[in-house]
């Protein structure tokens, strides 16, 4: 963070709670993330995203995020479209900066869509839901040109300003 700030790089970072100790002690992960957020606040509210991981860790992420969101405005999370309940999380976190992704982990059919078609359809649904209702910035992470074009058209039809969102892509993908 120091180097980013010193070189004038406007950045945001993602961290995984498992990297901060959540698999052993959720309170430790919370405290570690809080230290990161305090440091990020000293640099013009550098944004920190809590990355989502496998579904089994989702409730931990929600617990930690719910504790931090009242104290920090520079915290957000990632919503995975392949989860059946992703629309509920998009609704719950309208005030937070979110990154919307399709989802990468193999999950059971009791909690996640299994077909690409179903995931894509739900992804478009939560993107539209978010863009219509969000009170904060939205990052849409995709390389899918069909979805990108759909989002652009949806924004145009609904008079949604371009500065409310951005497309993000993995470098080298």
UniProtKB/TrEMBL annotation:
User: Is Protein biosynthesis a UniProt keyword of this protein?
Assistant: no
Q: Which InterPro entries match?
A: FAD-linked_oxidoreductase-like, Proline_DH_dom, Proline_oxidase
- What are the EC numbers? 1.5.5.2
Q: Is Oxidoreductase there in the keyword field?
A: yes
The GO biological-process annotations, alphabetized, read as: L-proline catabolic process
Q: Which UniProt keywords apply?
A: Oxidoreductase
Q: Name one GO molecular function term.
A: proline dehydrogenase activity
What Pfam families does the record point to? Pro_dh (PF01619)
What general EC class does the enzyme of this chain belong to? oxidoreductase
User: Ranges for the Proline dehydrogenase domain?
Assistant: 10-172
Protein name per Swiss-Prot or TrEMBL: Proline dehydrogenase (Proline oxidase)
Gene designation: fadM_1
């Amino acid at each position: 963070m120091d180097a980013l700030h010193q070189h004038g790089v406007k950045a945001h970072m993602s961290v995984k709670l498992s990297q901060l100790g959540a698999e052993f002690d959720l309170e430790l992960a919370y405290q570690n993330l809080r230290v990161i957020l305090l440091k990020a606040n000293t640099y013009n509210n550098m944004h920190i995203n809590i990355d989502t991981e496998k579904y089994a860790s989702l409730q931990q992420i929600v617990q930690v995020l719910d504790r931090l969101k009242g104290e920090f405005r520079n915290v957000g999370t990632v919503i995975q479209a392949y989860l059946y309940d992703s629309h509920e999380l998009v609704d719950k976190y309208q005030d937070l900066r979110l990154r919307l992704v399709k989802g990468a982990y193999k999950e059971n059919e009791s909690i996640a869509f299994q077909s690409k078609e179903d995931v894509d359809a739900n992804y478009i649904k939560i993107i539209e839901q978010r863009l219509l209702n969000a009170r904060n910035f939205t990052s849409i992470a995709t390389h899918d040109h069909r979805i990108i074009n759909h989002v652009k058209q949806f924004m145009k039809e609904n008079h949604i300003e371009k500065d409310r969102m951005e497309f993000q892509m993995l470098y080298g993908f």
